Amino acid sequence: MISLRFFTLLFLIIGVASCDDARVFDEYKTVSDSWEKDEKISFVLPELDSLQRYNLFINVRNTNDYKFSNLFLISKMEFPNGKTITDTLEYEMAKPNGEWLGIGFTDLKESKLWYKENVVFSEKGMYKVILQHAMRKNGETFGINSLEGITDIGFRIEFAENP
User: Fold this and answer.
1) pLDDT tens string 85-121
2) What's the predicted TM-score (pTM) here?
3) What secondary structure letter does DSSP report for 45?
4) What is the DSSP letter of 161?
5) Record's PROSITE patterns (predicted)?
6) Helix (H) or strand (E) segment spanning residue 5
7) ∠ Cα 54 85 117 (to 5°)
């Protein structure tokens, strides 16, 4: 009887915790053994309500094989009309003592990183987000060809809270 109550309670907790009313889009792409410098990871966004505001996030899963405390990315958002916005982004991945900022119980950590907030997708048609790493060692001109320790890159869209 106790085990039945325990499992019922466990499933209830998992069910409530898995509800995610803010999520609109959430997709991951797996990186092979290492993320190559020229490897672009792209996400085609679903058609979104042009009257709604959204918050955009980049999700990164990394292991202890990741040797850096930060992450530089080049993001490109392609609009239906052909316009493109390119950004160079920097994210902290670890505290000064080396402890990962991401969440997770094992050596795999997941970081939810702000990309843009209160975005309105006013044009009808296909939007595309393309991500590429731009890591380099301090003082070096050329970038790192093979970035180890990143396992997955994700893109997430959530409803923005109304003010």
Assistant:
1) 999 999 999 999 999 999 998 999 999 999 999 999 9
2) 0.83
3) P
4) P
5) PROKAR_LIPOPROTEIN
6) helix 2-17
7) 20
CB 115 within 8 A of CB 58: yes
One-letter amino acid for residue 150 of the chain: I
Of 22, 30, 19, 18, nearest to 157 by C-alpha is: 22
Please list, in sequence order, all residues whose beta carbon lies within 8 angstroms of the beta carbon of residue 29, skipping any fewer than 6 positions away.
41, 43, 152, 153, 154
Q: Which CATH class is domain 23-159?
A: mainly beta
Domain boundaries, given as residue ranges, for the chain? 23-159
CA gap 99, 79 in Å, rounded:
38
Three-state DSSP class for residue 16: helix
Distance CA 10, CA 23 (A): 23
* Alpha carbons 21 and 78: distance in angstroms, whole number: 27
Residue 7 identity (one-letter amino acid): F
CA 66 to chain centre: 16
Q: Can you tell me the distance from the alpha carbon of 102 to that of 109, in angstroms, rounded to the nearest whole number? A: 5
Provide the b/e sequence for 129-143 (b: ≥16 CB within 10 Å). bebbbbbeeeeeeee
pLDDT tens, 78-93? 999 999 999 999 999 9
Q: What distance in Å separates the CA atoms of residue 57 and residue 45, rounded to the nearest whole number?
A: 13
